Every structure is written in structure tokens, then in C-alpha cells.
């Protein structure tokens, strides 16, 4: 069965998100750990977590994906901004451990004129401080569109970060279809080639989740503007190949398309109808 969900509001807690997911025929979901612009997180409610675990087990929700605030920048030139990002991530992981063995995704960051090398150095240095041996959460580096000075615009940059982290068995990758198409990986005309490249550079065993988004912009535009499935430059047929690809079909897929809940429900219905059980 296709594991698919969408980005949901976390404001009413875990059980509420799980119930919303089930309502739209999703069997996973993504959420922000706190306000996407940063700030403090709501206290963990252990009763809510317990109720969530029970509900999730009953409804076949096995994976969930938390997304770090997208304004965090582990490789800022400003030390206090790096420090803030690091402390936020440490706190996020503490919260993630209430739902063990789940996924936590973040944007590597923007080096802003310091250069990729310096940026990658800061990011891996921070990850070395975040990861600890008993941590059950897998931290995912998201593939980026390469807007501005974003790091993670190529598979090589992601590989470089992973290589510099000591306990890198706790690291994985979240592939964003809009981002990599914008970034110059042609998942429309050469999906096999892109995945072979991913395997060669990073290793497909690192791939743990897919952000499934169409793009408002053409191939290689480095823009990062998501579009509804089928309404953008990737198109429905590309997504049919993506969700059915032997290297991807067992992964959890997350919609981050410009939609309200009813729009997400339609996209989930569409993608489920295109998925071939084998
Ligand atoms: Fe993201
Ligand atoms: Fe994404
Ligand atoms: Zn994006």
C-alpha cells in the first residue's frame, strides 16, 4: 500500500493530526515541530502522545515526519543565529523521542557569501552536537532547489555533510521532487538516471522520505515554488512513475502542495489510484 500524507497543522496535537490524516485517506503526515518561523514549541502532552500511539496502531500509521522550522540556519555567518538553530534542533529531538523511531527533516541552511565549504563545516559541526548514541530519531537532510546560497542543492553537497558527521548512521535524506527538478535533476525525463546518480553519490539506503510536490517553474530554475500535483512543470505522469518506482514505492510520500485539506484529499485519491500494487 502507498504510504502517503500531507503537511498538517500541529496546533491541536498528535492525536488530532492522526485523525485528520485518516479522514483524508492518508496513512502518514508531516508537521512543523513549532512555528515555522522559529520560536518556542508547545509543551509535549504525554496523554496526547499515548492516545496518538494507540490511534496510529489501530489505523496503520507507522511513520510520521516532523519538519524543523524552515528559518533555522545552522550555517549562518552570525554565531548567535547558528546557536539558536542548534538549540532549537536539540530541543526538537528531545520532543521527537516521545514518538521513537520517527523522522525529523531540516533544510541544511544558507551559507550567505561564506561559501559552500564553510557552510558544510558549520552544518556537520552542529549535527555532531545534536546526535547522541541512544537517539532513535532519524534526522533527514532535505534536498534543496538551490535558491540563493542554499546548501543541499546537489547530491554531492549532502554527501559531504553526511561524511563529516561521526554517528552518521542516524542521518538520512528527504527527496523533494519540486526542489530537485528546480535544482537540475530531471525526474520527468530521466527518473532512473537521477536515482542511479543518487545511489552512486549518497546511496539509496539513505533515502527515507519523499516530498511529493509539482513545481510552478521550469526545469533547473532554482526557484522553489510548489504547485499542485499535475498543475506544474512535472505533471501527473511523472508522479505516476515516481510513486511506482522500485526504489521509491515503499517510502513515505508527503504532499506540500498549495492546498487546503479537501485539495490534499483529492491528490491523495489521485495518487492512490495511480499506485500499482505488486
Ligand atoms: Fe522543507
Ligand atoms: Fe520539501
Ligand atoms: Zn520547497
Describe the overall structure.
This protein is of the alpha/beta class. It has a single domain, classed as TIM Barrel (Alpha-Beta Barrel). The chain is built from nine helices and twelve strands. It has an eight-stranded parallel sheet. A two-stranded antiparallel sheet has the order 5-7. α2 links the parallel β2 and β3. α1 packs parallel to α2, α3 packs parallel to α4 and α4 packs across α5. The longest helix is centred in the N-terminal third of the chain and has 18 residues. The chain is globular, with a radius of gyration of 18 Å. The protein starts with a strand and ends with a helix. The model has no long low-confidence stretch (mean pLDDT 97). The site of one fe (iii) ion (FE) has 4 residues, from loops.
Amino acid at each position: 500500500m502507498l504510504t502517503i500524507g500531507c503537511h498538517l497543522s500541529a496546533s491541536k496535537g498528535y492525536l488530532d493530526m492522526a485523525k485528520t490524516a485518516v479522514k483524508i485517506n492518508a496513512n502518514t503526515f508531516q508537521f512543523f515541530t513549532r512555528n515555522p518561523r522559529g520560536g518556542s514549541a508547545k509543551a509535549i502532552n504525554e496523554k496526547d502522545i499515548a492516545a496518538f500511539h494507540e490511534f496510529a496502531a489501530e489505523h496503520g500509521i507507522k511513520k510520521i515526519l516532523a519538519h524543523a522550522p524552515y528559518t533555522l540556519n545552522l550555517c549562518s555567518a552570525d554565531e548567535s543565529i547558528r546557536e539558536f538553530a542548534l538549540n532549537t534542533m536539540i530541543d526538537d529531538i528531545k520532543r521527537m523521542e516521545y514518538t521513537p523511531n520517527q523522522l525529523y527533516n531540516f533544510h541544511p541552511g544558507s551559507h550567505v557569501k561564506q561559501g559552500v565549504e564553510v557552510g558544510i563545516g558549520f552544518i556537520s559541526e552542529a549535527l555532531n552536537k545534536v546526535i547522541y548514541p541512544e537517539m532513535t530519531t532519524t534526522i533527514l537532510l532535505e534536498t534543496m532547489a538551490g535558491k540563493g546560497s542554499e546548501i543541499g542543492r546537489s547530491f554531492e553537497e549532502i554527501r559531504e555533510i553526511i561524511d563529516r558527521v561521526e554517528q552518521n548512521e542516524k542521518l538520512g535524506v528527504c527527496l523533494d521532487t519540486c526542489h530537485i527538478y528546480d535544482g537540475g535533476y530531471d525526474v520527468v525525463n530521466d527518473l532512473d538516471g537521477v536515482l542511479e546518480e543518487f545511489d552512486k553519490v549518497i546511496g539509496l539506503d539513505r533515502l527515507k522520505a519523499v516530498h511529493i510536490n509539482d513545481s510552478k517553474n521550469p526545469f533547473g530554475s532554482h526557484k522553489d515554488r510548489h504547485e499542485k500535483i499535475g498543475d506544474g512543470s512535472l505533471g501527473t505522469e511523472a508522479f505516476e512513475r515516481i510513486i511506482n518506482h522500485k526504489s521509491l514505492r515503499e517510502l513515505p510520500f508527503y504532499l506540500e502542495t498549495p492546498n487546503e485539506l479537501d485539495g490534499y484529499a483529492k491528490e491523495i485519491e489521485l495518487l492512490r489510484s495511480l499506485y500499482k500494487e505488486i
